[in-house]
Design brief:
Helices cover about 45% and strands about 15% of the residues. By secondary structure, it is of the alpha/beta class. Strands 2-1-3-4-5-6-7 form a seven-stranded mixed β-sheet, sandwiched between helices. The relative contact order is 0.08.
Length: about 475
């Protein structure tokens, strides 16, 4: 066997994410494997998602004896973009075990693109910088022919003791030319079983775009930069038809940074879905300003959109402007109302701790949450990543810690207005107040429609008994800390 594909994300090493029990297969890895297989290479996959540790790769290395091990992280999964140290260490372990077997090791990931020296220090032969499929294909072809790799765009490697970094590679423009991901390499049933056991439905992932053209100054883009490229609605619907036929998912996660940015894309997608009478539910990420254009929300609802997550970030316009977000608090309110009007659930990504944030800014954000009561919230604190304007502003303060260990770390790595302890308590407080108000809404519904409550809603109502005192205590703690 020529190429063993792997990736460095282990759900079980990220306790918070494993608790959610919402695992998705490594889409980017599967796509890269499909590209190499379509070029005539024999490929296999070590899918680390549901494994316990990197050591589990050892038997596969022993039995398959690959010439190349390609640690190709799923760039469509936001968790891999966070560059968590526990996953970096997992990548180092995978590389070191592969080198013990005499393999040539290639890595493609957001973290490796930023920290290629660290990866080369741990036995990696080549780091792919930027979009990976074409670079990987050309690299393996060159190595197979025994030719020099110095002129190949998009890589970093060592020549004796010197690190060679070649020129950047332009991003691909024709995404429709790519093959379908190699889904046959994945044990899809293991994912299905987890979803059905914990959620009662099965969700799969696909990507319709690459990149983001907006310039939020805290958002790192080491793979695609500021370019935005879209697949055609026809090819996306074709892939959905294939997945529905082969694997019968109930739901899709469109794992784009921004779904349907191109004018008319969502409308054409909806037309094709309706024409083919496809029935499925899906969730996306979008921007509030985009949702207010054309008849986007209506088209999303008609095509099956169930949940739209938006980067609300803050209820303070001062903070949104400081982030170069390019959106307004008024747009957050209006987009949320339009989504609700069309029966679409709303999710808010919230970010605390940005430079200059005050208690008033925090209160504005809490007010926005309670005014709009999104169906879900995700809370983080500002996280400086290399290549961002935000990172350049605070990099002098990143001494003891430059990455989170896992997605539940939430440490402040620079001198913000408040301490890490304050923001961790704030995280708990916002959730408690939010859950308390959701419980109040459920209780009101109970009095109006006593026979219509679901089991989940009943639990939400009873949770008020916990969150009412909890929120009160956490507010006291917050005041002491800040």
């Amino acid at each position: 066997m020529k190429i063993l594909f792997a990736h460095s994300y282990f759900y079980k090493l990220d306790i918070k994410q494993w608790r959610f029990k919402q695992p998705y297969p490594p889409l980017g890895t599967l796509l890269a494997a499909a590209v190499m297989r379509s070029s005539g290479y024999e490929v296999a996959l070590f899918d680390s998602n549901l494994k316990d540790s990197p050591a589990e790769v050892i038997p596969m290395l022993h039995t398959s004896r690959p010439k190349y091990v390609v640690i190709y992280d799923d760039g469509f999964n936001y968790l891999t973009k966070m560059c968590l140290t526990v996953m970096r260490e997992a990548a180092f372990s995978l590389a070191e075990e592969s080198k013990k077997k005499g393999c040539i090791v290639v890595v493609s990931s957001s973290d490796a693109a930023d920290q290629y020296e660290k990866y080369l220090d741990h036995g990696v032969d080549f780091v792919i910088r930027g979009e990976g499929e074409e670079t990987l294909h050309e690299l393996i072809d060159l190595l197979e022919r025994g030719e020099d790799t110095t002129s190949l765009a998009g890589i970093a490697f060592r020549n004796d003791n010197d690190t060679v970094v070649t020129s950047s590679r332009p991003v691909m423009r024709d995404l429709d030319a790519l093959p379908l991901p190699a889904w046959d390499l994945v044990d899809v049933e293991s994912y299905r079983n987890i979803w059905l056991k914990h959620h009662g439905y099965f969700s799969m992932n696909l990507a319709t775009t690459r990149g983001c053209p907006f310039k939020c100054n805290w958002c790192a883009k080491p793979i695609y930069g500021n370019r935005y490229t879209s697949r055609s609605p026809f090819r996306v619907v074709e892939e959905i038809e294939y997945l529905l036929s082969e694997y019968s998912p109930d739901h899709f996660w469109m794992s784009d940074d921004i779904f349907g940015l191109k004018p008319g894309w969502v409308q054409e997608f909806n037309r094709l879905v309706q024409k083919k009478s496809l029935g499925f539910r899906y969730k996306i990420q979008s921007r509030v300003d985009l949702l207010l254009q054309e008849d986007t929300v209506r088209a999303l609802a008609q095509s099956g959109a169930e949940t739209v997550w938006v980067g609300a970030e803050s209820g303070s316009q001062k903070i949104l402007d400081a982030m170069d977000k390019g959106t307004t608090v008024a747009q957050i309110y209006e987009a949320s109302k339009q989504l609700r009007r069309h029966g679409i659930r709303v999710g808010f990504f919230l970010q605390f701790g940005y430079l200059g944030e005050t208690r008033d800014d925090i209160d504005f954000t809490l007010k926005m949450v309670l005014d709009l009561m999104p169906d879900e919230i995700g809370i983080s604190v500002s996280y400086p990543l290399p290549g961002t304007v935000f990172f350049e502003k605070v990099k002098g303060e990143l001494i003891d810690k430059q990455n989170w260990s896992d997605s539940d770390d939430l440490s402040m790595m620079f001198q913000g207005t408040f301490s890490s302890e304050f923001y961790k308590e704030l995280h708990r407080y916002i959730h408690a107040v939010y859950r308390k108000h959701k419980g109040y809404a459920t209780i009101r519904k109970l009095f109006r429609y006593p026979l219509r409550l679901s089991h989940t809603e009943l639990r939400s109502g009873l949770a008020v008994l916990y969150y009412l005192p909890s929120a009160f205590i956490q507010r006291i703690r917050l005041n002491r800390l800040g």
